[in-house]
Amino acid sequence: MKDNKLLAEYMEFETDGYNGFDYRSLQFNSNLCVWQPNKDWNHLMMVVEKIEKENGVVEFNIEGSDANIAYQDGEDRMWIIRSGKTKIEAVYNACVEYIKQ
Fold this sequence. Notes:
The chain is an alpha+beta fold. It is 36% helix and 23% strand. The protein has a 3-stranded antiparallel β-sheet with strand order 1-2-3. Strand 1 and strand 2 (66-73) form a beta hairpin.
């Protein structure tokens, strides 16, 4: 839940209300929706797409159970490589690590 909150803040979602989040601000079809990027590809892809639009992000790949994000940090190309038991877990872990950096 802590990392979901980190992703919600990165996405600039309201973080007040139900369990610390105002899920209604996400404007999903239901009145109250639990945003779970760690379990739902549709939710996680919103984060991936925002990361891909960041200046400096040059690559976002999934290979097997690894997710790789390459970004420019000044002159240097930096890599975040995260694994998971599943592809969604690997992508989720890479997104969380990218945002923490």
